Amino acid sequence: MVKSTSANLSPRKMPRQARSQATLEAIFQATIQVLLSEGRQRLTTIRVAERAGTSVGTLYQYYPNKQALLFAVVRRHVTEVGEQVRRAAESVHGKPLADIVSAVVSAFVRAKIDRIDEARALFSVAGELDSRVLVVESEERGLAMLTAVLRTATDAKFDDLPTAVYIFMAAMIGSTTYMIEGGAPPSILRAWGGQLESLCLGYLERAARSIHNDSR
Amino acid sequence: MVKSTSANLSPRKMPRQARSQATLEAIFQATIQVLLSEGRQRLTTIRVAERAGTSVGTLYQYYPNKQALLFAVVRRHVTEVGEQVRRAAESVHGKPLADIVSAVVSAFVRAKIDRIDEARALFSVAGELDSRVLVVESEERGLAMLTAVLRTATDAKFDDLPTAVYIFMAAMIGSTTYMIEGGAPPSILRAWGGQLESLCLGYLERAARSIHNDSR
Amino acid sequence: MVKSTSANLSPRKMPRQARSQATLEAIFQATIQVLLSEGRQRLTTIRVAERAGTSVGTLYQYYPNKQALLFAVVRRHVTEVGEQVRRAAESVHGKPLADIVSAVVSAFVRAKIDRIDEARALFSVAGELDSRVLVVESEERGLAMLTAVLRTATDAKFDDLPTAVYIFMAAMIGSTTYMIEGGAPPSILRAWGGQLESLCLGYLERAARSIHNDSR
Amino acid sequence: MVKSTSANLSPRKMPRQARSQATLEAIFQATIQVLLSEGRQRLTTIRVAERAGTSVGTLYQYYPNKQALLFAVVRRHVTEVGEQVRRAAESVHGKPLADIVSAVVSAFVRAKIDRIDEARALFSVAGELDSRVLVVESEERGLAMLTAVLRTATDAKFDDLPTAVYIFMAAMIGSTTYMIEGGAPPSILRAWGGQLESLCLGYLERAARSIHNDSR
DNA sequence: CATGAATGAGGTTTCATTCAT
DNA sequence: TATGAATGAAACCTCATTCAT
């Protein structure tokens, strides 16, 4: 078995033919499905190949080993969610705090819920050391991005911006993960966007010396 | 869905001899240590026994199977953290919201940080279905407890208490998990109690029709 | 009583490639050989695989577990012996008692002796509950078959046919098993067919009201 | 584990104190009970000790190893059954064939049925090499004994006495084993003595030059 | 003597990975 | 390229036996 060295975790090839592309995607989706239906412990290469409608041999043509498969699932998820949030953040540069929080939180929640299967599958892999690498990378990009946009808020200045941003992110990501994974009731799931916005905004307002503080 | 055998997850015997008691505890601690140093995937019964300074055979005298070992770790953690929070909550019945949040949050944070090894170990097992059972149970007790205490807050009434409590808990547990697991810098770790209190209180004040709302 | 899991005792796949077919048969024969040379207690999957010239992994591609291996050996033996006897019995419908007994007994003895390795191997597994299932099934078919043919005997009618048939079968199978397993001397082994015929015919004549009883 | 060398199979001590005697017997009976209720594969020393109401340690005070336990069960059974038959045979020296067969067969059947638990338990151990040794020994004594008594039959002389005796024994023991183990219906079980007598006598009369052959 | 905790070899089974077809 | 049979290391778990208490 391949030990968790950081080598060899990237896909083997990016095939140009359409058929190969389809196979690759089928394997990718199958990985998620097996993770959801069987759990991390029962995720085997043969099961994935079967669910994808191919054979193990073919699977190994695209991914050098099993870790790479998990890596791919995690990477795609965090990349895409990150991308959605980045776009939202860019569109509210230089707006008031409430607008920024609203845009960022709702983009995040939408992205997660659109990919809820991926999110849950990812969770069962969260304990894995190798997946952590990707998540930490993405976390750093997220912190930088949020720091940048919050600095432009027209109506709030933060004494300790790094801390505020960290808590913001922890609240947004952590509590959403808790909810998705904990099997929250539909009523909560529906209200999630608004509640999370309230949670984050409530915190950030407390953390900011609001510019109009005195005029209240 | 992941199959849940649910068979025989309770410890095999509670031995009376002092030697046995020590062995039992050594195995318990070894499980946590191996989980932390090697991760869930590399947690093997032999490795646990070795780290505990015994043999596999002995391990199996106390736990009927590997799942039971994990079960024991998770159960003890959630039980003890839950207990700390419960005590704190009882001591602030009928106090103002800020006091309640402060007491609950700081009890939770203290309990988690006192058991930070257990908490991290628990995380790498979070994906396992069997552990979920315990966590869900404990969640339900937590919700009931928080609902009860928040109802007694002298200065806040909630239109939608169930939702507010759920978000409160998700924020408290979820973001703490995120932080502990994400490897937060010491500066954050130190500030955690206060920040988390701010996060939760900010939210709950927004969610409450504050009694003195008008007099502001 | 011995617990009967009764799960998954049928072979895993019937492969089409010639290589696989050969492997399957090699494993089958190896099971018998190991049973004979080492006994049931020392029949291990690794030993079987080694003797078959393959690896354990391969063994498990064909049989889902060890029980299934034993099951296969027993099933094939009782099926084939049963088949031989059935054919012999059909060929003597409507003949005199002596002819019927002669045909049935000699077919049985020949079938057993032709497969004497299987027969001995089977014996060391006889205590196993799962094998009993098959044997009992085959016993029932045997009783039905013998009942049918004895009813057509031209020169004998039985007051209590069910009992007579049962004793006939018990004598035929039981004493042959005893002999094969007890390590009878070659002289006995050679004479077995005739002696067993004598044993069974002696009994059945006593059990029948012989039609020509009076004219003797 | 002790390999099946023929060493060390005898009980460790024959205790004189009554309490020890009782313990020894309890272990003996427990072995049979476990064999019947769990099967050979699940016969473990701990299970036997528990069922006997003692501890493994104590068990090992009386038997040097597990094989010795099985050995003891088998030995006692074959010894006692053999003894019953021997007494019956002695009582019919110099009597007619029918009397001899009747005495021997009914003694055998009675002895077996009186110890039917032992008989069944013994069966699940039959495949074991070590038990075979005892059975073969006892078989030899049996053959000698039956040869001796049949030679005194007043009304029958055998051309090939060794063969006749062997078949007699195989029929008696083999078919009884088949019946007991096959789970014969009660009707058969009740009729067994008479039927078996008929079986054996039918054969032996055919095998003998009956002295009064001419006078028929 | 009795107990039962401890040991660890050995058995069963799974699964990532390779490679001949 | 695709397939899936083969491999064997490694995981889980059991149990005969010993020995300190």
From TrEMBL, chains A, B, C, D:
Keywords of the record, alphabetical order, are: DNA-binding, Transcription, Transcription regulation
Q: Where is the signal peptide?
A: none
The HTH tetR-type domain covers which part of the protein?
Answer: 21-81
A GO MF label: transcription cis-regulatory region binding
Task: Please report the name of this protein according to its UniProt entry.
Answer: Transcriptional regulator, TetR family
UniProt keyword annotation of Transcription present = yes
Listed transmembrane segments: none
**In which organism is this protein found?**
Alcanivorax dieselolei (strain DSM 16502 / CGMCC 1.3690 / MCCC 1A00001 / B-5)
Coiled-coil annotated spans: none
Q: Which residues bind DNA?
A: 44-63
> Which superkingdom heads the taxonomic lineage of this protein's source?
Bacteria
* Short name of one Pfam family: TetR_N
